[in-house]
From TrEMBL:
Species this protein is from: Sporosarcina soli
Sequence similarity: Belongs to the multicopper oxidase family.
Domain Plastocyanin-like, first and last residues per copy: 15-128, 149-249, 296-420
Entry keyword set: Metal-binding, Oxidoreductase, Signal
Protein name: Multicopper oxidase family protein
């Protein structure tokens, strides 16, 4: 069984300097360091105590994206920590193994703080994840990859306003785990890549340059029931996926890389001659299911995302911290319909995220979701005119956010509040 232990962390939001470009110090933000953050390792059943410390000159919050925790420790815009202040929080890990992340969420200033470097990962393990035999040597054959795009000024400083486009920041420089021009050296073996689209506004479609397939094993909030073979995989901001690439099976003669939709190289691989472990992929990984009852529930909430630039709304309104937009009973499953309403220009993709829960996608435009979305999700990409039904319940009480994870849309008010009581 999962042994219940107590895990204690201190997480400091701080300023620092990072050598992103050779010999140049770039001013950055980070958690427990100058840039990005540590991996917080949790296990299902743990009681977690975290000291949150704000060493910035501005207010911040500490939001645990994907964690099923009470609203008061979720780190939304209400739970502000002032400069020089600290706050202890405590919660229990009640959900299954998954790769989550954490980032700030202060009202109107989330995007720039994330852009400056505030983002870290959370790994949850459980009995199942330990028994599956998936690659799990951190940094060897189990690699986190945080994709973020930035724009730097002539002094090689992060320049938020220079990266600003109509619908959010689109940087001209890709960083992976905060590194410029990264290269990943791997053995001839199966390697697990934990992909996080940590960008403010950019979407990625991951492919191998050789056209070979890979398998997806996990969604935002847990393992898929079976590995899903894919040739490409799209992630909108805040979505995660764990994929396995089998480097023992790939032809490396012409070079190997993860590429984007437009064929641009995201991450080149160097495959050494060393043979690694010869592990088999598990056939069964999880018992995720949508019950008949959930399928047949009537829609009780309709949530309409509309607009572009700073004219973005949910159900026709902009965020108001004083207004509760939806209520739901703790532990009760409801079906929500989320709709991306196009405008005269056609509209755009909105990645819709809900705090404090992992939900199930019942349908996309009336049809079953693709195989690699039949697992726990906390963020879902909606194209213009798409209508998605989700089954959703909250294990805890409190006030939670639903918002577009284009962080500039979120800061511009494409966010609403759900009170769970
Ligand atoms: Cu990634 Cu409101 O959060
Ligand atoms: Cu979140
Ligand atoms: Cu949006």
């Amino acid at each position: 069984s999962n042994n219940e232990k107590e895990v204690v962390y201190t997480v400091r939001a701080q300023k620092g300097e990072t050598e992103i470009f050779d010999g140049i110090k770039t001013k950055t933000y980070g958690y427990n360091g100058a840039f990005l953050g540590p991996v917080l390792r949790l296990s299902k059943g743990d009681t977690v105590k975290i000291r949150l410390i704000n060493e910035l000159d501005e207010v911040t919050t500490f939001h645990w994206h994907g964690l099923e925790v009470p609203g008061k420790v979720d780190g939304g815009p209400h739970t502000v920590i002032k400069p020089e202040e600290e706050e202890p929080i405590e919660f229990k890990v009640t959900q299954e193994a998954s790769t989550l992340w954490f980032h700030p969420h202060p009202k109107g200033n989330t995007a720039e703080q994330v852009y400056n470097g505030l983002a870290g990962l959370i790994y949850i393990e459980d009995d199942n994840s330990k028994s599956l035999g998936l690659p799990n040597e951190y940094g060897e054959n189990d690699i986190p990859l945080i994709f973020q795009d930035k724009t730097f000024d002539d002094e090689k400083q992060l320049n938020y306003s220079a990266a600003m486009n109509e619908d959010g920041t689109i940087g001209d420089t890709l960083l992976i785990n905060g590194t410029l021009n990264p290269k990943l050296t791997v053995k001839k073996e199966k390697v697990r890549l934990r992909l996080l689209n940590g960008s403010n506004a950019r979407n990625y479609t991951f492919k191998l340059n050789t056209g070979d397939s890979f398998v997806q094993v996990a969604t935002d909030g847990g393992f898929l029931n079976k590995p899903v073979t894919l040739k490409e995989l799209s992630l909108t901001p805040s979505e995660r996926a764990e994929i396995i690439v089998d480097f023992s099976q790939l032809n490396t003669e012409k070079g190997l890389a993860l590429i984007n939709e437009n064929e641009s190289i995201l991450l080149p691989f160097e495959v050494t001659d060393q043979r690694g472990e010869d592990s088999n992929l598990p056939g069964e990984m999880n018992n995720f299911s949508i019950t008949e009852e959930e399928m047949n529930l009537p829609v009780t909430k309709k949530v309409e995302f509309f607009g572009m630039m700073d004219k973005v709304t949910i159900n026709g309104k902009k965020f108001d911290a004083e207004r509760i937009d939806f209520t739901q009973k703790q532990g009760v499953t409801e079906v929500w319909e989320i709709y991306n309403k196009p405008d005269a220009m056609g509209g755009m993709i909105h990645p819709v995220h809900i705090h404090g829960t992992q939900f199930k996608i019942i349908s996309r435009n009336g049809e079953a979701p693709p195989e690699n979305e039949r697992g726990w999700k906390d963020s879902i990409s909606l194209k213009p005119e798409e209508r998605v039904k989700i089954a959703i319940q909250f294990k805890d009480k409190g006030v939670y956010m639903i918002h577009c994870h284009i962080l500039e849309h979120e800061d511009n008010g494409m966010m609403a509040q759900i009170k769970v009581e």
